[in-house]
Recover the amino acids of this structure.
């Protein structure tokens, strides 16, 4: 198993290798974890998540930044970090910038440093406003725990990679709710399917979604460079 570079950087060669893995299996093959530096793998995964979000947004009509959060209504999943990464990319960051920035931030937190005091101040302001509106008189600021990073500081790159791949799965979940494609064997009412039929339908749906994501990722491949 590979480990993250201690400086939070991502090798372009490793990111390209991760991209090839995802071309083969957009939901994330095992080799992405065993053969690739996790920061570089997360860079490629962020690119593919953005492609998956675009495909899902086109089908569902939802904002691409919000599709993972919307999928949380279908299946409970960790949507905070994928949504954050999608927002960063939507604001103009490259996948490399979004990923390495988050990983370095978590590394600073792990070292006992506070890399963005301004953001913490905003969090505290939000909490104070929430407490002021709360009807619970016994709750005060000392009772609140704030997350200094959305990632696990002990394993930030791998944690981010896992969340980004979960985000791609979330995009498929939402896409499948809106996609009106039916395979040639999907003629019966879905409520009448047995487990095998439902699994076959999901497999076809996943492969159709995967191909759409491949096409979209290829169209925007320059953002990974």
């Amino acid at each position: 198993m590979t480990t993250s570079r201690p400086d939070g950087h991502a090798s372009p060669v490793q990111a390209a290798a991760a991209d090839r893995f995802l071309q083969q299996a957009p939901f994330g093959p095992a080799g992405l974890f065993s053969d690739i530096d996790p920061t570089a793998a997360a860079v490629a995964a962020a690119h593919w998540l953005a492609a998956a979000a675009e495909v899902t947004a086109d089908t569902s009509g939802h904002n691409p930044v919000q599709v993972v959060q919307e999928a949380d209504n279908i299946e409970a999943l960790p949507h905070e970090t994928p949504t954050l990464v999608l927002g960063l990319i939507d604001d103009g960051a490259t996948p490399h910038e979004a990923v390495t920035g988050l990983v370095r931030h978590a590394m600073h937190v792990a070292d006992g440093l506070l890399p963005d005091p301004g953001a913490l101040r905003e969090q505290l302001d939000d909490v104070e406003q929430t407490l002021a509106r709360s009807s619970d008189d016994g709750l005060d600021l000392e009772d609140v725990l704030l997350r200094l990073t959305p990632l696990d500081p002990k394993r930030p790159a791998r944690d981010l990679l896992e969340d980004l791949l979960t985000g791609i799965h979330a995009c498929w979940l939402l896409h499948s709710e809106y996609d009106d494609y039916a395979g040639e064997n999907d003629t019966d009412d879905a409520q009448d399917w047995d487990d095998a039929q439902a699994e076959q339908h999901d497999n076809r749906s996943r492969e159709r979604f995967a191909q759409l994501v491949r096409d979209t990722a290829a169209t925007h491949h320059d953002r990974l460079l």
